[in-house]
Amino acid sequence: xxxxxxxxxxxxxxxxxxxxxxxxxxxxxxxxxxxxxxxxxxxxxxxxxxxxxxxxxxxxxxxxxxxxxxxxxxxxxxxxxxxxxxxxxxxxxxxxxxxxxxxxxxxxxxxxxxxxxxxxxxxxxxxxxxxxxxxxxxxxxxxxxxxxxxxxxxxxxxxxxxxxxxxxxxxxxxxxxxxxxxxxxxxxxxxxxxxxxxxxxxxxxxxxxxxxxxxxxxxxxxxxxxxxxxxxxxxxxxxxxxxxxxxxxxxxxxxxxxxxxxxxxxxxxxxxxxxxxxxxxxxxxxxxxxxxxxxxxxxxxxxxxxxxxxxxxxxxxxxxxxxxxxxxxxxxxxxxxxxxx
Length: 341
Prior knowledge:
Blueprint: H1 2-13, H2 17-21, H3 25-46, H4 55-112, H5 118-143, H6 148-173, H7 199-213, H8 221-239, H9 247-266, H10 271-308, H11 318-329, H12 331-340
């Protein structure tokens, strides 16, 4: 494609072909976008889309769904399994180590003859215990391949290049001359124009906001009770004049602002890009609901199994009993986790 483009341009301008073949990277990028744009138009023409359906809008929706199914869903499931491995394998081991570590630190401080007030000694003891448990937790995360940083970062990082790439491609396709200007869809008078009613940008904002606010819809009774207890504990600390940071609330507030910002930005971009964004956000919302429901069922099974164990039966062997729970409730998944580790 680049050679043909250089040949045509060299004949038109009368310049040597080798000068165009050494074109700057920006020219090569534009040529690559043009090639992808032509491929998209050819795909929309080749697909067996019913005549009553708008071909380009339908192709945008299909490409969005297929790209999310191929790239986003597998990594989201991968991250969810790593999260479960951390909760069901690593954290019970760390909790079972805590009493032994606390006794060991107390004996060490006794040998060192650490002096001070009761509060000072408790602070030193707590700091040393936390440092030891933190190191052990990191080692266990690495051993079982469920480091939280990778679990949280890889799913959005894998989605970002596709999202940005398709947005740039559709923006390029919306520049005249283009067949996009002859097709309308829903409230879009043309795929090259902004939405005159603002309906799709507003829908995008509401879908993004629903993705943020629906996190409590699939919480078990035990989780809700535990969250209320945490809120009471935080309120008591604030009443004592202590500073309490709540990262979850900060993230939620930021995402609410993002949903408003998406409405503003979507009101200024071509309709084809807005259609892609709305489709991607709707798919993401359904994916979140399905994964949350999956998590909800898992929590319910774990709570039901735990309630059947007599009190004190698993004391001192917390991680062994939790491994047994996971093996009995999620046998196939557990085998996959062992293979991954």
